[in-house]
Design a protein that fits this description.
Strand content: 15-25%
Largest sheet: 2 strands, antiparallel
Helix content: 55-70%
Number of helices: 3
Order of helices and strands: EEEEEEHHH
Radius of gyration: 24 Å
Shape: elongated
Length: 150
């Protein structure tokens, strides 16, 4: 379904701005609380309609988020902080959120091979986080049993 967009047409003689409604299909680069400045005008949304450029933008954005997620997961899973399972739970939640975001927003722009590779790696991370969480929980349960028997 095409989105309605507005185009600002500046008239230099009258120094008035008129707004026209047109329909543009493409990838929206709108962000919350962020405005683009183009020739002194505030632009709240830019729509990219060139398919090749859209794919490159989406791949760049997804790879950046993916690398941040991998780094964070590696840092938390490799840490020796075994006092609670909140780090593992945080990773599981973020992996699921990222997976849903890709599925809902970017699936049409990414190729099947890229999606499959990311899915495999995310599954490995989820498995490692679940294993760590289970190990921490079982360790805490053993400590509780040990304290009760004393």
């Amino acid at each position: 379904m095409p989105k309605k967009k507005y185009v600002v047409d500046k008239k230099k003689k009258n120094k008035k701005k008129s707004i026209k409604t047109i329909t543009i299909e493409g990838y929206s680069m709108a962000k919350k609380n962020h405005k683009f400045y183009i020739k002194g005008d505030n632009v709240s949304n830019i729509v990219v309609s060139d398919e090749e450029l859209v794919k490159k933008l989406v791949i760049y954005k997804v790879e950046k988020q993916y690398k941040q997620l991998i780094n964070k997961a590696t840092e938390i899973l490799a840490s020796d902080d075994d006092d609670n399972a909140s780090g593992s739970r945080l990773i599981l939640d973020e992996v699921e959120r990222f997976r849903q975001q890709i599925k809902n927003k970017y699936k049409e722009y990414l190729e099947k091979e890229e999606l499959m590779l990311m899915a495999k790696q995310l599954t490995i991370i989820k498995k490692a986080a679940k294993e760590k969480e289970q190990a921490i929980i079982s360790e805490l349960n053993e400590e509780k049993k040990g304290n009760k028997s004393k």
